[in-house]
Amino acid sequence: GVLSGCSGGTQPIAYMGIHGLRDGVLNISGGRSMRDRFVANNGCTAQNPPEPTQGSLTHRVTTYSGCRSGYPVVWAAFDEGHIAAPRDGATGDSGSLTWVPGEVWKFFTQFGSTNPNPSPSPSPSPTAGTGNTIRGVASGRCLDVTGMSQTNGAAAQIWDCNGQTNQRWTLTSASELRVYGNKCLDVNAAGTADGTAVIIWDCNGQNNQKWRFNSDGTITAVGANKCLDVSNAGTANGTKVQIYSCWGGSNQKWTRV
Q1: Domains in the chain, ordered, with CATH?
Q2: How far apart (Å, rounded) are the C-alpha atoms in residues 101 and 120?
Q3: Would you write out the chain's pLDDT as a tens digit for each of its 257 residues?
Q4: From CA 199, how far away is CA 208, in angstroms rounded?
């Protein structure tokens, strides 16, 4: 049934919901209802978060924006039933192969205080010096967010390595490349075509935000199965970054420093 306290409850609390689309014990609509109660209580921006299609055996994770500081809401929907350990691409509980513990750990470890401030506040400034720089072999320049922007859709480019927060990338256990702590390197609109732009976007767990570091120095966009590539093999500051069919060129090779 629905959690005790959801009916009429108004107090904020950090909330994470993980629910199967085909749950026959508590229908997905009940899970959405619980989620939306805490979206409202926590002052988050209401939305209809993306969910996987039935039959896809995948999951989608959404972190709501606008929530009161210390009271986040995270929603993870997966294409399966009433199980505890779903795995992408497989049915039934999958033990240690499930993605759930990593998401739960990420949720709990974000809290730096036992007394969160109930007043709305902007996102904290990123901490300088965290993460690694990713340097292009051909150019000697670093993977960089244009103009130090933290706006969804800001383009990735190469620029002289300077150690600033817009050049610091953290590879997570979910194969994300995070910058500023809450933005992910993203293949625009989940494109798969050669030349599709690489940008930053709110982290959402989709395959177009997952990357694989290879032994030959290339970085593969998991969703498209194409390489992180400096456009037209450019080496100048401001040259944009894209995905392109892997061919072994030095403009597709990178080192983490």
Answers
A1: 15-108 (no CATH), 134-256 (2.80.10.50)
A2: 29
A3: 566 656 667 788 899 999 999 999 989 999 999 899 889 988 999 999 999 999 999 999 999 999 988 899 999 999 999 999 999 999 999 888 899 998 999 999 888 654 444 443 333 333 344 689 999 999 999 999 998 999 999 999 999 999 899 999 999 999 999 999 999 999 999 999 999 999 999 999 999 999 999 999 999 999 999 999 999 999 999 999 999 999 999 999 999 98
A4: 11
Instruction: Dig out the tokens for 228 from the structure.
Output: 């992180």
Angle 162-186-97 (CA atoms, 0-180°, nearest 5)?
A: 110
Task: Kindly report whether the global pTM for this prediction surpasses the value 0.70.
Answer: no
